[in-house]
Every structure is written in structure tokens, then in C-alpha cells.
Amino acid sequence: MESTGSRLGLSLGIIALAAPIVALGLFIGTFAITAVEAARSNPLAGATFYTNPESTARVAAAAAAEADPDSADTFTLARLADQPAATWLVPERNPMDTVRSDVAGIADAAAAAGQLPVFVIYGIPDRDCGNFSSGGLSETDYPIWVESIATALDTRAAVVILEPDALALAQQCGNVPQRVAQIQQGVAALQGTLATVYLDAGHSDWLDAATTANLLNQAGVQNVRGFATNVSNYNDSAAEQAFGEAVSALTNGAHFIVDTSRNGVGSNGEWCNPTGRALGATPEATTDDGLRDANLWVKEPGESDGTCNNGPAAGEWWPERALELAAAAGW
């Protein structure tokens, strides 16, 4: 396994060799691109995001088509499954001995399709602090697991969202120093890879912008592309835009993405399987020069948040709720 240090050393060497060429290029009239312009450019611009054929939505749509191929519900589920959503990497499904090959296989399939995969790394120790999505790895195994993911992405492009809720929950869980250090480990492992990385920042109805920015700065947001908001939540895009801009202003202009999978009518204040919600904007990179890089479906819309409001276990497919979300969005 190639170490993070060797990746970083190689990158610094390439930068040093390229410096004279870059300096010459700056003099080439209208073709020159300044460092500031390069920093503003959206690395996700023009990307088509990957639709994983093994996603829960795809599996559910295939089962519906086999059972009742001509029903309206089957058509709706098929349309839902056609939307690209993130692949969540969890040690329960992607253990230490297979996670590298799992990631490489998905990333290679995405590249063959001309698409960009989105991964969520979700295996931090004491994950979710014993709530519906509890679990995670030991403090010894976690950095090794993340390093395996990083190694798979050394030569493969991807979007990575690092550890939903980990920083935002840290104060409540009483483990801020540990969580910050663990996210720092993830940042260090992923630096030098081809991944575009966003640290999870909670959402607009959780911690205030100043507290969120402080945690992100401690965790190393300056060493990645930026942060993600609204992951697995329901807040409307206007609220997340304002929150993202406020956090960005306190993190030296970090860019952000928004999970729009279930925010079509905003939030009613509940986070766990609330009724009356709707699908949001479909996944797409932004086309302007703003701070928001993309709308993504980080949470698969038809998956349960947990055993609340009559839902199945967290992460399990819930066809009735998937259809309700689609209907409320006018699908």
C-alpha cells in the first residue's frame, strides 16, 4: 500500500518540476489561466454522476418490474432508480479486506460509462453515537480502512463525502478532539488522490455557521475542496445555500455541495422519516462560478432513516416512502 507521505512527496515533486512551465504559460495572452481563476473553477463541472446498477433503488425497481411491469408505481420506481445517487461505504458491507477492491470496481465501472462516482465514507468509530446508524470501526482499524479507500482512488476520479454527522455530532457525543483527529486522518489519506473531497458539515438547522466552520477548520477543510450540507436531511435549498455561504466565509472560501434528494418542500423540523416530504432537485453540477459545486443525491431517497415513524431499519429500502416522495414532487 502506497503511503500518504509518498503520494504527497510525489505530488510536491511534480509541482516543483512544473513550476517553470506554468510561469511561461502565464504569458500566453488570452490563453493564460490565473491561479485565482483555476481555484474558482468547479472540478465537477460537466460531470455526469454515476448510477450504480447495484443500488437499493435499482434492485427495488427491478423487483417491481418483475412483479408488475405495467403499473404506474413500477414506472415511478424505475425513474427514481435512474437518478444517480451516492454509494455509501460502510465497514459492515465493505470490510477491511474488500473495501479497496469494492471502491476500485465501482470507480472503474463509472469511468467505463463516462460517469463520476460519488462515495460516502461512513465508518468512523462510535458512528452515530449509538443512534439508528450506530456502528463503525475501532480506532485502530479506521485509519487503515480509509487508507485502503484512498489507495483505490489514487488513479481513479471520484467525489468523496467524508463521514456524515461526525463533526456536527461531536459536541453532543462529547468527543470533539477524537472526531477532529479522525477526520484529519481521512483528509491526510485522501490528499494526493484523484478524489474531490467534501467534509460533512451537518445542515442549516443544526449547529450555527461559526461553530460549524470552527470544527471544519480544525479538521482540515482547507486541505480539501470543501464541505457537504443537508446529507440525509430535508432542509430546502435556499436555507442550505445561505448556510453554505456563511460557513464558506469563515473557512477561507471553501466550496460546498448540497444533498437535495429529499428537500423538495423543505423540512417540518423532523429528521427521521418525516411525512409530507418530496424529492428535490436532481443531481447536477452547477454552471456558474458560485460557491456551490453541485446538487447531489447523497442519501438514496427511498432508504429509511431508522425505525421511527413506522420505518424499517436505517438504510433499508422503503417502497411506500419512496413513492410518497416522488408523488409529492409531482413525478
Automatic annotation (TrEMBL):
Signal peptide: none annotated. Its EC number is 3.2.1.-. Pfam families: Glyco_hydro_6. The chain crosses the membrane at residues 12-33. The keyword Disulfide bond applies. Keywords: Carbohydrate metabolism, Cellulose degradation, Disulfide bond, Glycosidase, Hydrolase, Membrane, Polysaccharide degradation, Signal, Transmembrane, Transmembrane helix. InterPro entries: Beta_cellobiohydrolase (IPR016288), Beta_cellobiohydrolase_sf (IPR036434), Glyco_hydro_6_CS (IPR001524). SUPFAM superfamilies: Glycosyl hydrolases family 6, cellulases. Substrate binds at residues 88, 203, 206, 233, 271, 299, 303. The active site is at 128, 165 (proton donor), 305 (proton acceptor). The keyword Isomerase does not apply. GO terms for biological process: cellulose catabolic process. It is an enzyme of class 3 (hydrolase). GO terms for molecular function: hydrolase activity, hydrolyzing O-glycosyl compounds. Belongs to the glycosyl hydrolase family 6. This is Glucanase. It comes from Cryobacterium arcticum.
